[in-house]
């Protein structure tokens, strides 16, 4: 039976972001350096069985939602099989996936059959040339077809994640938001976070400015979401089918309501996106630890979850212990 998992600051922890690979078929500027990052060796990465064991144990502790992420999760061999195994865990209420969409056209159907209920797709520009410059790969049309395929087969809602960068893609706020007039998509604008990519602090644009731009498009009504315990604030443009989400981890941090844990592909449990401390579960998994011992490590780690992160709009410091591609967003 599931417990309720409470951290050292009284927050209920029920959401796991599970990164299944550090590999990616794009090279987004804000996520990783031009030359990429050193790749994990195969034996450094947790096997699917090891990930399933941790996921299973976390579900017994009280995790009820799992989001599969990466790197790019769909590049790991067997990702559909893994999604299916995760979706079959008893006691889970929701299994979702975050992808760059490059392989989505061919895999959307399989994901749906595997039990993926919701999907987030990163899309930073509607201009193919600009998309190629931000992601360093010429894949816009492929991704767009994947988005339409996901919507067509009923993976709903399709959420599009856009990291807004001043002078790079901020002139597309209106066009991206305008997608919600024609499609039931949720278009989510995310503040640039100072990780180890190559997008500097000068590119940061706060959510208040993004909201002001959206408000100039016409009446923007706050709406609730059926899955609203996430970090997004939701709005709808008058007459739109879809919603707009604003995610502001820097300017309006949501630490007091943070319900998340992260497991990296090499088996490190992170209790905060910006943490410099991690709990290495791999030795326990590989040296015969019992479920009770691993549960104890998990409980201990959760109690160390920091009250809040230390990043502020005026004093952004780099999160140096891992690039985002090695965490999973
Ligand atoms: N490859 C998948 C994708 O791009 O959706 C999943 C992994 S990616 C690390 C997860 C999310 O993190 C994406 O939506 C991406 O836009 C976001 N992300 C990566 N680096 C970021 C940064 N520096 N600031 C804000 N969001 C970032
Ligand atoms: Fe890859 Fe996603 Fe990072 Fe882009 S944001 S480099 S698609 S992991």
Order of helices and strands: EHEHEHEHHEHEHEEEEEEHH
Which whole number gives the mean pLDDT?
92
Specify Rg, calculated over alpha carbons: 19 Å
> How is the biggest beta sheet arranged?
12 strands, mixed
Q: What ranges have pLDDT less than 50 throughout 5 or more consecutive residues?
A: none
* CATH structural architecture: Alpha-Beta Barrel
Q: Can you tell me about this structure?
A:
Strands 7-8-9-6-5-4-3-2-1-10-11-12 form a 12-stranded mixed beta sheet. 28% of the residues lie in helices and 17% in strands. The radius of gyration is 19 Å and the shape is globular. With 329 residues, it is of the alpha/beta class. The protein has helices spanning 48-61, 79-87, 104-114, 128-135, 140-152, 173-182, 207-215, 282-286, 291-303, and strands spanning 15-19, 65-69, 94-99, 118-122, 158-164, 186-191, 220-223, 233-237, 243-247, 260-263, 268-270, 279-280. Helix 2 runs parallel beside helix 3 and helix 3 runs parallel beside helix 5. The chain starts with 14 loop residues before the first strand and ends in a 26-residue tail after the last helix. S-adenosylmethionine binds at residues 24, 30-31, 69-70, 72, 98-100, 122, 161, 163, 190, 192-193, 195, 197, 324-325, 328-329.
């Amino acid at each position: 039976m599931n417990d309720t998992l409470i951290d050292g600051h009284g927050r209920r922890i029920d959401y796991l972001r599970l990164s299944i690979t550090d590999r990616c078929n794009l090279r987004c500027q804000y996520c990783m350096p031009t030359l990429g990052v050193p790749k994990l060796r195969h034996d450094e990465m947790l096997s699917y069985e090891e990930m399933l064991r941790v996921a299973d144990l976390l579900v017994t502790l009280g995790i009820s939602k799992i989001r599969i992420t990466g790197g790019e999760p769909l590049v790991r061999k067997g990702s559909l099989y893994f999604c299916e195994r995760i979706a079959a865990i008893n006691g889970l209420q929701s299994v979702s996936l975050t992808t760059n969409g490059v392989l989505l056209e061919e895999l959307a159907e399989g994901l749906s059959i595997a039990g993926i209920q919701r999907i987030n797709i990163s899309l930073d520009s509607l201009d193919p040339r600009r998309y190629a410059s931000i992601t360093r790969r010429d894949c816009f049309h492929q991704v767009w077809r994947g988005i339409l395929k996901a919507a067509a087969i009923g993976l709903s809602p399709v959420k599009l994640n856009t990291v807004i960068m001043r002078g790079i893609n901020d002139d597309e706020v209106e066009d991206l938001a305008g997608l919600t007039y024609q499609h039931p998509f949720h278009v989510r604008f995310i503040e640039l976070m100072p990780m180890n990519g190559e997008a500097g602090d000068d590119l940061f644009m706060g959510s208040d400015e993004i909201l002001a731009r959206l408000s100039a498009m016409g009446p923007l009504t706050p709406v609730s979401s059926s899955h609203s315990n996430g970090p997004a604030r939701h709005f709808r443009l008058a007459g739109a089918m879809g919603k707009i989400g604003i995610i502001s981890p820097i300017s309006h941090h949501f630490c007091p309501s943070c319900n998340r844990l992260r497991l990296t592909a090499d088996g490190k449990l992170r209790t905060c996106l910006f943490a410099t401390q991690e709990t290495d579960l791999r030795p326990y998994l590989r040296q015969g630890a019992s479920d009770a011992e691993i549960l104890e490590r998990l409980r201990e780690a959760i109690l160390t979850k920091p009250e809040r992160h230390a990043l502020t709009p005026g004093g952004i410091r780099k999160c140096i212990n891992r690039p985002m591609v090695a965490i999973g967003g």
